[in-house]
Amino acid sequence: MQAQLPVHIGQPQNPLPSRSTIDPSSSLTSYEVESMAAVRRPSLHEIDWTQHEVEPRWLEYETSDCVAALTPASSRGASERQRLVAGAAGRGETVLLVDVMGNVNEIRRNVFVNYDASIDLLDHETTIVGYRLPRGSRPVLADGLNAADRDLGLRLLNRPPDTWWRLESRGAGKYLSESGWQKTEPVGELCPILLDSLGAPVVAVWVSPDERQRWYIVPDGTDWDTVIDWLVHHAVPAYVPDAPQRHRLTSAVNPDLETPAENEARVALADLEVRYAQDKARLEQDLADAKAVADPVRNGLLFGTGQALVDAVTRALSAAGFAVDDVDARLGATKSADLLVAFGPHRRLVEVKSERGPAKEALVGDLRRHLDTWGELQPGSPADGGTLIVNHQHKLAPGQRPRQIYRRPEFVNTLTVPVVSTLDLFDWWRTKDWKAIRTAVLGTAPTADNQPSTGLAEEPRTT
Question: Distance between CA atoms of 57 and 68, rounded to whole angstroms?
Answer without folding.
Answer: 10
